Amino acid sequence: MSRNWGTLVMYTLITLAVFYVGYQMVTNPSSFLSSIIMMIGIAVLVYGAIYFLFLRNRVGAGAGRNSNEMKKYKQAVKQSKQKYKSPAPVKSKAKPTPKFSSNTKQKKPKRKNAPNLRVIEGNKSKGKNRASF
């Protein structure tokens, strides 16, 4: 029974608040807007203070942002980059080799493994009428 009573009180307070907001908007809109803006500003300041003081260090902790697993992951990424890094070309002061002239033909490299494709013959005269779909 107490739960129904609490619900009734809550709905009554919400209804009175809605009527008061409507009354303020009709009778004194400038004061209403300034009070709404001030309430939003205070709420943002309070949320920002709570976030920076308490929640900032906890956000992402479940994902392991500062945990041992993340450190191990970063170390593995670093090792992988070192392992698969292509060696940097050595720059020397020797003359660069002359480029091929336009008269010489450059051969395209042949593929080592040609794709194994075959044509499947079918009845090509029967075509679906796609406009009827």
UniProtKB/TrEMBL annotation:
Keywords: Membrane, Transmembrane, Transmembrane helix. The chain crosses the membrane at residues 7-26, 32-55. Residues 85-99 have a biased composition (Low complexity). InterPro entries: SA1362/YqhP-like (IPR048110). Residues 62-133 are annotated as: Disordered. NCBIfam families: SA1362_fam. This is Uncharacterized protein.
